[in-house]
Amino acid sequence: AGAETVKRAVELDVASRFQESLVCYQEGIDLLLQVVKATKDEAKKRRYRQKISEWFNMEIMSGPLLKKRLTFFSDGKYHQQIRIEENATGFGYEKLFHDYLNEIVSEVWVEDPYIRHVHQASRYWLYNFLRFCEMLVKGPCKVKTIHLLTSYDEGSGRSQQMSGLEEIRQSLSNYGVTLNIDFSSSIHDREIRFNNGWMIKIGRGLDYFKKPQGRFSIGYCDFDLRPCHETTVDVFHTKHTKKM
């Protein structure tokens, strides 16, 4: 399994699909090292380590893509910045997060202070979070747990916020997904993390879409057709994802 995963990483690398290839490289090498760790025969361990090292150097750290790969993953960390222009379209959640979701994603952390009442400040924060959850349920990832950290709505909106989040929680449970909700009065950062190591920071959080012109206007249902507010998306990759 480890060898096949790394071979898949090489194929993705050749295709310049660097985000996906990085995850496959790490998962493949981890699987191979688990075999070494489980082997009790010291002679076999040494042979396995040598073979992994030789193969790693031959397949991954050589060839014409090395310079481009090292530029992409400078200092062993990946960072990409995506600029969403004012009124731009084509940035629905599926397209924005597609490169960072794969079969090994089972746990997601969402930190956003404005997952609140649906009509608060003419925003659709709860609906945006629901759409994000729908994307996770559809796959290709196999998400089992979603952690949400947000802030309480103010005034009379709090009861509707709690009711909406509870309805999302119950609905997710029908798909075998657990939603854990925590609140903080001092939260300001907006970020989304997946347990395959990807971290996405969006300047406006999940609320980067403009209000639709009407319930029957193009873009009301399909977020790819919805005009966006100007914002910046920063994508990072780390070996392990920190839990809240």
UniProtKB/TrEMBL annotation:
<dbReference type="GO" id="GO:0030496">
    <property type="term" value="C:midbody"/>
</dbReference>
<dbReference type="Pfam" id="PF16565">
    <property type="entry name" value="MIT_C"/>
</dbReference>
<dbReference type="InterPro" id="IPR052817">
    <property type="entry name" value="MIT_domain_contain_protein1"/>
</dbReference>
<dbReference type="InterPro" id="IPR036181">
    <property type="entry name" value="MIT_dom_sf"/>
</dbReference>
<dbReference type="Pfam" id="PF04212">
    <property type="entry name" value="MIT"/>
</dbReference>
<dbReference type="InterPro" id="IPR045331">
    <property type="entry name" value="MITD1_N"/>
</dbReference>
<dbReference type="GO" id="GO:0061952">
    <property type="term" value="P:midbody abscission"/>
</dbReference>
<feature type="domain" description="MIT">
    <location>
        <begin position="1"/>
        <end position="65"/>
    </location>
</feature>
<protein>
    <submittedName>
        <fullName>MITD1 protein</fullName>
    </submittedName>
</protein>
<dbReference type="InterPro" id="IPR032341">
    <property type="entry name" value="MITD1_C"/>
</dbReference>
<dbReference type="InterPro" id="IPR038113">
    <property type="entry name" value="MITD1_C_sf"/>
</dbReference>
<dbReference type="InterPro" id="IPR007330">
    <property type="entry name" value="MIT_dom"/>
</dbReference>
